[in-house]
């Protein structure tokens, strides 16, 4: 492979007085990986500068260098005209760079206000000024459109979406000239993203620069001004206009190839067979009530709904990880009451939070992939690591795991590749029914297309799939049948072909079909 | 007990003793449990001080650490170094019995100090304190005093040392037996841990459980400092107290007679000094000059004496 | 949207947080222990003067270990552990009762004890924060070394405190309540304020709950870690004075196994061993449960071995009672 | 691109994993200790017979605590902790040396010790897995209770083993090497295989590394937790026999503070106290370091208090040496 050709646009071209941040040939090396390998970046005051790149391209590493978490091994950074090399996160913050990290960086047992002002608490002789902190937090939250989140509430008790708001509040609590956002929309629902964009526009109107990272191209088109594309730690294109650059070109710069389609082409409805999964009147008080659904072999059933509508809890209950208050779950006619029974019966689940719920971060990839199936490889209790590795390698190849190889610890993989490991776990296990909770969260465009294909292929082979996603196009593009969940109730069901995005969104938000649409 | 270590040892200066004349050089291996307690501390310092009295003795200290297993290791190492004789205060006589036998079989005589080996093959000489006798003496003193006062059904308290040690059991048994002679029994018994804080805590609890008390026996004068402090703090004085072991502080208090402590029954660490002297004689093949026998006898048991205000002056020099 | 899924707080029934519920559980355990005491020794409990005095005795017995537990709670909340507390007390106690130190009078002794505590805590903290030693190993090494040094300094003898002022600390009562109890109350109150109302406390929770997040928020994790061990050392210094005064003496073996007691009290009081969560009030209740148990055994003249068997059972029961209460209460609030 | 930035795994220099590096560090520490021994006591080390015997003494001293450490390592890797190991040993030792048990002969005694170990481990495991008690508290309660029961059973007396077969375990040598050393080797080897080559080991690492992930992968976390404490109890049963044979007796106070030693050895050997990672080889090296230190002190006639001070320093140094090696080696691999 050859190094990417230097593009004319890779040369920074902003006028000097506008440019607040400039990176030249920045390099960051981790043991065995050149995470950044000559990055060029230039950000102007008051713009939203988007960073695009595949999983593992180095986006998070780049912003951590800016935030003083990592130190660049080579290269130059200029911040507001001065050379810049923050030694600590505090130094970066003082210089006016605030960061919203990809992984939630909150302390569960501190309140919302304390989290927002962590590290720079308003205080008098070391005593925290709780009223001041609370009122300032309340202001910021109101500005963020979330006045309903109480500043005194413990972060532990907040749902994921609200935690993301608190992360944002923390960034705004600094008097920042540049705010870096690493996939802030990954855990946000549709309407929350709109809210986020409103705030970003407010910020840029004040001349604050924003670096925005996302895998969702539509978002970038919506909010972004200019785009810089990273591939394998290098800038492959810089300062492309966000709105007008063709998708084909962006994807090409990111992946080095063109992706013809995102969703696999539509297919014929799967044959009518007896249902594999039958859920009847499942209820967990406070989470969801009276949910009934079926999944047939080879069928992909998608559940749309807002964050907080209880879909994760539903999946976990079906999987046997939570005890239902009422109702039954049957897999191929047999009741499922525990995770072990579910796994034994051929059910698998890729949970919502892969790091805390699915991965042994310090263990090698192949041991993570075979976590649910190592007993099947084993002979009389003795494990067959050779067999596990070989099988994992095949699966890794079919998922196009990057970097290849199954021995390195999962911790060193980028988020999207970690997700592939989780999906791979169930491909290995001879799964008959796969429960997927937000499977493409944080996964790049290329890998996403691969994952979609993998899911389709599984269905073609007769595996039933129950898919939860907050991205409506994903549900519509992938599923054969769509269910809509709202506040714990299943309010709609129809074949995917008979429903469109607007209808689903309206159902999700208002709970009713659009006027004039047939029910 | 004293804050000045040099006052703390009891040695036989051997004036006018023929055996004191320098003989062939003797290497004495010495092993005692780790000392975090005054009595054991005094054992080691006495041994060192006594060895210092002889120009022909070299003392090899191998302290035994925190438990019987560590002491076994220390003894194994000591045996490999082939001293002429080993003086050992075992963590527990029964647990170290095998170590004693091992040394004897290696041709090294063993002087057992304080805690007896069950097997006679495990030692050449045994110098024992009398734990049971200590309890007996304390019980007898308390019984006699109470009887003299005419108390008919007295409330008697007991503060023991570390309860899982056999010596504690022996002391308590002796105490119960002696009290039974007078028809008395122990109303409440707390175990401490041979530390001053332990003594203070246990005594506080005991005083709380017995709002009125006639007599108290505390097994150990070292933890007795804490016991006396607790009694002061509770402002109690309606009873009298007997101590154990015979520390310098206890003897001083008894002499001054300004606290509830009226007597103590001895269990003197001076036995370590005697052990070193006798070990030297055994190694040199000499006997004890007052005995007719040519060799040192096999067993010596110290008697537990009762120190009161009347005879305290006499015992002052034995206080540790 | 979050508004819809999250009931606004005003409309929510004022929810007891887990900490409070745990503390209620511990009060329940305490009440239960007292009831057992009343049932087994009614004649003692029928005397109000005795009961009053008994409460003071329990508090007094809890005072020194309570002070240590406050420091330990901070260390554990901050994600560490301090196995050397007992050894620090011994070293501080022995150091402040040497003949030389005693010649400087009470102020000199108190100063010495506090300085020794702070100094050892500082070494612990530096080893852990900058030497990158696991707290368990670093403080275990310190345990061994500090006890050794204490034995060396005291020449393995019990050192008597002849200072009347120091010795009076244990006997002084103010409004009928022992000074020692006031000291515990003051330390606990200061600890509560420090944990809940200062940046120091909030940062402690942060580094214990999510060290990476704390670091990213610009908190100097290393310095905070050092300070936590210094705080624990300081508490040990205070406890050393209290114990020395109570026993009118100090010795290398004093405060034996205080580390286990303090950790157990903190955990029973709701502190997470993995860090990030804990309450001072709970820790103090934990200490009180333990000293009430000891008191109960004493007034019932239980033998040591029976005591131990029963104590194991009570610890398990206490934790189960807390859990039971918690679950049943959350059940209640669900409905 | 990827091939360029990331050498494919086959071409990568065979990288030593952290565990191996730590073990190398521990071997370094051992060598250092031996060198200190040679320097301080050259006359002893010049005698080959003495050296050979000394190695056997060290190994023999490490044998019982080594067996306990293997069990402890499993528990810690599985995310728990077992503070009751010393107490289990005492209970098993005392129970198997009662007059009644001894009347069943050696087989009866061994069976009893193992059953007591397994039984107590089972109770620990059930309390933790199903009673949802924090391991620290559950096993601390068990520590107190089991020692109490041991004192009760033995009536606080040291119980002498009159069984020749049992007593012979400590004195038997095969090819000149003590049987006790073979037992340690067998347990360590079995532990290594169990951890690294069986599904049991994989489950242990899984539940310790990420309990939730293990649960959602269909692993029965509760059962595995119970089994881990049973395993630790079993190791204690074995150690009880070994110690009883060495002392030809058992007593309620035996194996005092073995919990601290075992945990320390495991951690020094590279086991993460928070679970999910650890090696058996490292744990055994950790034990050897401790018993070599003790041996070094013994041959140098160090007084206990000096011993303790030096020991604290050596522990710190040992950990620092490991870290130093690790960093310098990774430095090497960067280039
Ligand atoms: N602490 C680390 N140690 C070793 N390698 C690392 C570390 N952090 C990141 N890497 C590696 O650096 C490369 C870049 O990772 P980074 O997290 O920056 O990717 P990313 O672009 O943010 O991907 P994603 O879109 O999945 O978040 C990856 O190959 C990753 O495996
Ligand atoms: N930590 C928490 N404490 C209290 N309530 C919570 C918590 N997490 C979630 N909930 C509540 O549980 C319900 C379901 O929340 P959840 O976010 O898991 O739903 P979801 O549909 O799975 O969302 P997602 O789109 O993130 O998958 C909501 O009513 C939410 O408010
Ligand atoms: Mg990233
Ligand atoms: Mg969810």
TrEMBL record, chain A:
<dbReference type="InterPro" id="IPR050107">
    <property type="entry name" value="ABC_carbohydrate_import_ATPase"/>
</dbReference>
<dbReference type="Pfam" id="PF00005">
    <property type="entry name" value="ABC_tran"/>
</dbReference>
<dbReference type="InterPro" id="IPR003439">
    <property type="entry name" value="ABC_transporter-like_ATP-bd"/>
</dbReference>
<dbReference type="InterPro" id="IPR027417">
    <property type="entry name" value="P-loop_NTPase"/>
</dbReference>
<keyword id="KW-0547">Nucleotide-binding</keyword>
<feature type="domain" description="ABC transporter">
    <location>
        <begin position="21"/>
        <end position="257"/>
    </location>
</feature>
<dbReference type="GO" id="GO:0016887">
    <property type="term" value="F:ATP hydrolysis activity"/>
</dbReference>
<keyword id="KW-0677">Repeat</keyword>
<dbReference type="GO" id="GO:0005524">
    <property type="term" value="F:ATP binding"/>
</dbReference>
<protein>
    <submittedName>
        <fullName>Sugar ABC transporter ATP-binding protein</fullName>
    </submittedName>
</protein>
<dbReference type="InterPro" id="IPR003593">
    <property type="entry name" value="AAA+_ATPase"/>
</dbReference>
<keyword id="KW-0067">ATP-binding</keyword>
<feature type="domain" description="ABC transporter">
    <location>
        <begin position="271"/>
        <end position="512"/>
    </location>
</feature>
<dbReference type="InterPro" id="IPR017871">
    <property type="entry name" value="ABC_transporter-like_CS"/>
</dbReference>
<keyword id="KW-0813">Transport</keyword>
TrEMBL record, chains C, D:
<feature type="transmembrane region" description="Helical">
    <location>
        <begin position="59"/>
        <end position="92"/>
    </location>
</feature>
<dbReference type="GO" id="GO:0022857">
    <property type="term" value="F:transmembrane transporter activity"/>
</dbReference>
<dbReference type="Pfam" id="PF02653">
    <property type="entry name" value="BPD_transp_2"/>
</dbReference>
<keyword id="KW-0472">Membrane</keyword>
<feature type="transmembrane region" description="Helical">
    <location>
        <begin position="280"/>
        <end position="299"/>
    </location>
</feature>
<dbReference type="InterPro" id="IPR001851">
    <property type="entry name" value="ABC_transp_permease"/>
</dbReference>
<protein>
    <submittedName>
        <fullName>ABC transporter permease</fullName>
    </submittedName>
</protein>
<keyword id="KW-1133">Transmembrane helix</keyword>
<feature type="transmembrane region" description="Helical">
    <location>
        <begin position="21"/>
        <end position="39"/>
    </location>
</feature>
<feature type="transmembrane region" description="Helical">
    <location>
        <begin position="133"/>
        <end position="153"/>
    </location>
</feature>
<feature type="transmembrane region" description="Helical">
    <location>
        <begin position="226"/>
        <end position="245"/>
    </location>
</feature>
<keyword id="KW-0812">Transmembrane</keyword>
<keyword id="KW-1003">Cell membrane</keyword>
<feature type="transmembrane region" description="Helical">
    <location>
        <begin position="174"/>
        <end position="195"/>
    </location>
</feature>
<feature type="transmembrane region" description="Helical">
    <location>
        <begin position="104"/>
        <end position="127"/>
    </location>
</feature>
<dbReference type="GO" id="GO:0005886">
    <property type="term" value="C:plasma membrane"/>
</dbReference>
């Amino acid at each position: 492979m050859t190094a990417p050709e230097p593009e004319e646009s890779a040369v920074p071209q902003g006028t000097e007085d506008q440019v607040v941040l400039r990176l030249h040939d920045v390099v960051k090396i981790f043991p065995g990986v050149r995470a950044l390998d000559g990055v060029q970046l230039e950000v102007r005051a008051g713009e939203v500068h988007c960073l695009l790149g595949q999983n593992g391209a180095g986006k998070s590493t780049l912003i951590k260098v800016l935030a003083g978490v990592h130190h660049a091994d080579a290269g130059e950074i200029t911040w507001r005209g001065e050379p810049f090399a923050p030694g600590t996160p505090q130094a970066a913050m003082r210089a006016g760079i605030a960061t919203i990290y990809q992984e939630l960086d909150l302390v569960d047992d501190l309140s919302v206000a304390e989290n927002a002002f962590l590290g720079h608490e308003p205080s008098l002789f070391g005593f925290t000024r709780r009223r001041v902190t609370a009122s300032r937090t309340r202001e910021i939250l109101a500005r963020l459109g979330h006045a309903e989140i109480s500043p005194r509430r413990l972060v532990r008790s907040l749902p994921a979406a609200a935690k993301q708001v608190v992360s944002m509040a923390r960034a705004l609590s600094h008097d920042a000239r540049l705010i870096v956002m690493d996939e802030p929309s990954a855990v946000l629902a549709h309407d929350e993203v709109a809210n986020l964009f409103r705030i970003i526009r407010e910020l840029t109107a004040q001349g604050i620069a924003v670096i925005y990272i996302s895998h969702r191209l539509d978002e970038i088109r919506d909010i972004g001004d200019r785009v810089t594309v990273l591939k394998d730690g290098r800038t492959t294109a810089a300062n492309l206009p966000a709105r007008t650059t063709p998708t084909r070109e962006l994807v090409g710069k990111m992946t080095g190839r063109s992706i013809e389609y995102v969703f696999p082409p539509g297919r014929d409805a799967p044959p009518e067979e007896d249902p594999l999964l039958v859920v009847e009147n499942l209820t967990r008080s406070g989470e969801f009530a009276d949910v009934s659904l079926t999944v047939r072999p080879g069928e992909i059933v998608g559940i749309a709904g807002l964050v907080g509508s209880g879909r994760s809890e539903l999946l976990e209950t079906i999987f046997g990880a939570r005890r239902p208050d009422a109702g039954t779950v049957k897999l191929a006619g047999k009741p499922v009451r525990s995770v072990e029974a579910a796994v034994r019966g051929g059910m698998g689940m890729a949970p919502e939070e892969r790091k805390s719920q699915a991965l042994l971060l310090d263990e090698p990839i192949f041991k993570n992939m075979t976590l649910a199936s190592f007993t099947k490889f084993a002979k009389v209790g003795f494990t067959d690591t050779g067999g596990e590795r070989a099988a994992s390698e095949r699966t890794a190849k079919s998922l196009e795991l990057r970097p290849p190889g199954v021995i390195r610890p999962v911790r060193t993989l980028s988020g999207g590749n970690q997700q592939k490991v989780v999906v791979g776990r169930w491909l290995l296990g001879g799964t008959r029914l796969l429960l997927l909770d937000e499977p493409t969260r944080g996964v790049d465009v290329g890998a996403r297309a691969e994952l979609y294909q993998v899911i389709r292929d599984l269905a073609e082979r007769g595996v039933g799939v129950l898919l939860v996603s907050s991205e409506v196009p994903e549900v519509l593009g992938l599923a054969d049948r769509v269910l809509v969940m709202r506040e714990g109730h299943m309010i709609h069901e129809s074949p995917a072909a008979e429903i469109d995005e607007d209808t689903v969104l309206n159902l999700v938000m208002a709970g009713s079909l659009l006027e004039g649409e047939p029910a | 007990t004293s804050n000045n270590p040099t006052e703390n040892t009891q040695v036989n200066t051997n004036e006018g003793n023929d055996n004191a004349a320098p003989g062939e050089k003797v290497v004495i291996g010495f092993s005692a449990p780790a000392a975090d307690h005054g009595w054991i501390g005094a054992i080691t310092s006495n041994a060192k001080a006594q060895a210092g009295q002889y120009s022909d003795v070299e003392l090899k200290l191998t302290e035994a650490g925190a438990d019987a297993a560590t002491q076994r290791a220390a003894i194994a190492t000591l045996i490999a170094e082939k001293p002429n004789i080993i003086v050992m205060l075992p963590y527990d006589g029964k647990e170290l019995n095998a170590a004693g036998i091992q040394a004897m079989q290696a041709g090294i005589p063993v002087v057992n100090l304080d805690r007896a080996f069950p097997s006679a093959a495990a030692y050449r000489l045994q110098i024992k304190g009398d734990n049971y006798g200590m309890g007996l003496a304390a019980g007898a003193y308390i019984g006699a005093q109470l009887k003299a006062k005419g108390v008919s059904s007295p409330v008697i308290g007991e503060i023991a040392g570390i309860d899982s040690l056999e010596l504690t059991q022996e002391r308590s048994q002796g105490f119960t037996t002696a009290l039974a002679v007078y028809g008395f029994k122990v109303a409440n018994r707390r175990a401490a841990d041979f530390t001053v804080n332990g003594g203070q805590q246990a005594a506080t609890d005991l005083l709380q459980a017995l709002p009125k008390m006639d007599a108290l026996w505390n097994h150990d004068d070292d933890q007795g400092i804490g016991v006396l402090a607790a009694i002061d703090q509770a402002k109690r004085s309606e009873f009298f107290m007997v101590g154990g072991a015979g520390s310098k502080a206890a003897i001083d208090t008894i002499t001054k007679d300004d606290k509830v402590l009226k007597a103590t029954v001895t269990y003197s660490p001076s036995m370590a000094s005697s052990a070193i002297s006798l070990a030297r004689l055994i190694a040199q093949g000499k006997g004890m000059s007052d005995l007719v026998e040519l060799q040192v006898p096999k067993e010596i048991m110290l008697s537990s004496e009762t120190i009161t205000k009347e005879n305290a002056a006499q015992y002052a020099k034995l206080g540790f | 949207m979050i508004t819809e899924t999250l009931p606004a707080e005003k409309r929510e029934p004022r929810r007891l947080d887990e900490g409070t519920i745990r503390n209620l559980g511990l009060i329940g355990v305490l009440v239960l222990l007292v009831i057992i005491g009343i049932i087994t020794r009614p004649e003692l409990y029928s005397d109000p003067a005795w009961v009053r005095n008994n409460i003071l005795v329990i508090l007094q017995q809890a005072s020194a270990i309570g002070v240590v537990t406050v420091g330990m709670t901070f260390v554990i909340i901050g994600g560490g552990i301090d196995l050397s507390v007992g050894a620090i007390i011994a070293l501080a106690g022995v150091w402040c009762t040497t003949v030389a130190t005693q010649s400087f009078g009470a102020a000199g002794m108190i100063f010495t004890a506090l300085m020794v505590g702070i100094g050892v805590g500082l070494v612990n903290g530096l080893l852990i924060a900058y030497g990158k030693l696991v707290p368990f190993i670093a403080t275990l090494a310190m345990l061994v070394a500090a006890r050794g040094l204490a034995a060396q300094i005291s020449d393995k003898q019990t050192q008597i405190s002849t200072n009347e002022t120091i010795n009076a600390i244990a006997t002084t009562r103010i409004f009928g309540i022992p000074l020692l109890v006031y000291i515990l109350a003051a330390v606990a109150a200061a600890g509560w304020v420090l944990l809940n109302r200062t940046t120091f406390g909030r940062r402690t929770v942060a580094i214990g709950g999510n060290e990476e997040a704390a670091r990213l928020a610009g908190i100097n994790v290393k310095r905070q870690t050092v300070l936590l061990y210094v705080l624990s050392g300081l508490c040990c210094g205070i406890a050393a004075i209290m114990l020395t005064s109570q026993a009118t003496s100090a010795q290398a073996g004093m405060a034996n196994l205080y580390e286990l007691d303090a950790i157990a009290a903190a955990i029973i009081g709701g502190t997470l061993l993995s860090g990030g969560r804990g309450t001072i009030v709970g820790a103090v209740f934990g200490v009180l449960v333990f000293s009430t148990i000891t008191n109960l055994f004493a007034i019932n003249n239980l033998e040591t071995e029976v005591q131990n068997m029963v104590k194991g059972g009570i610890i398990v029961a206490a934790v189960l009672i807390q859990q039971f209460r918690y679950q049943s209460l959350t059940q209640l609030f669900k409905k």
